[in-house]
Amino acid sequence: MTPKTDEARRRRSAARLYAVQALFQMEASGQTVEAVTREFETHRFGAVYDGEELAEGDVDHFRSLVGAAVNHQARIDQMTDRALVAKWPIDRIDPVLRALFRAAGAELVDLPTPPKVAITEFVEVAKAFFPQGKESGFVNAVLDHMAREARPQAF
Q: What pLDDT, on the 0 to 100 scale, is given for residue 15?
């Protein structure tokens, strides 16, 4: 992989993480998509906190993910519900996982990313939020189900 494509991949990966954070923040605070995306683009992408520089995200990918998650939320939530056990509808799961499923669902429903790439990327995002837990396996299973529903021709 060339340094340029490797950097572009890192920026898209960071955009996915930021999209999950932004969707979580929107749900928790009730802020608009415009306010949250503006905040992330202004204060998070590449910012330095406590001597640590945050990753520079792909702004276009971030906007696409957050916008598609908001625009297709009902469809994505229904897909997630079908992938979850009946006793655990989306409104009962951890809000970070809910945001992750919405961001990943947006990528599966609205963007041309190959499903296996999207699943792998969002499993890595899950590991960033839950480094000690079993959530990454759970995320993988749910996203596989969602991908097969969203794009059956890819399997």
A: 95
70: helix, coil or strand? helix
Q: Which CATH class is domain 3-154?
A: mainly alpha
Tokens of 128: 């960033």
For the chain, the domains span 3-154
Residues 6+ apart with CB under 8 A from 70: 26, 33
Residue of 78, 108, 80, 75 lying closest to 93 (CA atoms): 80
| pLDDT profile of the chain (155 residues), mean per 10 | 81 95 97 95 80 83 97 96 81 93 97 97 95 90 96 90
Note the Cα 70 to chain centre separation in Å: 12
Helix (H, G, I), strand (E, B) or coil at 52: strand
Roughly what angle, to the nearest 10 degrees, separates helices 59-71 and 3-29? Answer: 40
Q: What is the pTM of this model?
A: 0.92
